[in-house]
Amino acid sequence: MPETRYLWNPPPVPSLPVRGRDERLPVNRIFCVGRNYHAHAVEMGRPVDKSVERAFYFTKSPQTLVASGSTVPYPSETKDYHYEMELVLVVGRPGFRVSAERAHELIYGYACGLDMTRRDLQLAARDKGRPWDLGKDIEQGSVCSEVVPLEGVVIERGEIALEVNGQVRQRSDVSKLIWNIREILADLSLHYHLQPGDLIYTGTPEGVGAVVPGDVLAGRVEGVGTVALTVGPAEAG
Ligand code: MN
């Protein structure tokens, strides 16, 4: 086989550090679950009735990943940049139409993430029936910690919390997920052939809010780890 030659160097593979390993985890796709804690669904004005609704998802490009501990510029075209603290599920095995009972077989581990959101653009799009991309698929808008290997482990409870400048803004428990880890994997695998390196941001609890330049965010999920972000000034020009 001749070596494939490209017009220019291909972009780097998006990846995350793995606790206890020298190798990095190559990231495939980023899926996000919408409205997966009741109190957050209510604060967004869209309560969820699980008896008649299915989970819904949106995606963020892997190129939007940014390492925990980074300082990122306040993004363009928004006046309402929000944090969303989330437990991130990391897929380690392929799976398609996986039952909830076997869903744990797909799990490589977990991480702590921030699904950063241009809330003004997201809500404008939502209310016009337009796609959410400009509100969600934001450069340096998918913050993720190191991956913690927990193969086959289903996290069912544990505090999830976020502090901004040392003040608690979000505090809930993973046990309050509307669609739990098994249900998310089973349902998402009806739509997609899940692949190793797929990340699933599982949704944020209540207490989302806006940041301003200079804010320091520190999140944690009990039993997983921590994630941090500093918001810098907007880019000039
Ligand atoms: Mn989210």
Task: Note down, in words, how this protein is organized.
This protein is α+β, with helices and mostly antiparallel strands and 237 residues long. It has a single domain, classed as Fumarylacetoacetate hydrolase, domain 2 (Alpha-Beta Complex). Helix content is 13%, strand content 32%. The protein is built from 4 helices and 18 strands. The strands form 4 sheets. Strands 3, 4, 5, 8, 9, 11, 12 and 15 form an 8-stranded mixed sheet that branches. It is globular, with a radius of gyration of 17 Å. The mean pLDDT is 97. The structure holds manganese (II) ion. Manganese (II) ion binds next to loops.
Distance between the amino and carboxyl termini = 47 Å
Overall 3D form: globular
Largest sheet: 8 strands, mixed
Overall pLDDT confidence: 97
Total count of strands: 18
Output the helix-strand order.
EEEHEEEEEEEHHEEEEHEEEE
Quickly count the domains: 1
What's the CATH superfamily, by name?
Fumarylacetoacetase-like, C-terminal domain
- How does CATH name the architecture? Alpha-Beta Complex
Strand content: 25-35%
**Nearest-angstrom radius of gyration?**
17 Å
The portion of residues assigned to helices is 10-25%
Task: Identify the bound ligands.
Answer: manganese (II) ion
Return the CATH class. Alpha Beta
What's the CATH topology label? Fumarylacetoacetate hydrolase, domain 2
**If helices are DSSP runs of H or I spanning 4 or more residues, what is the number of helices?**
4
| Secondary-structure content class | alpha+beta
Low-confidence stretches: none
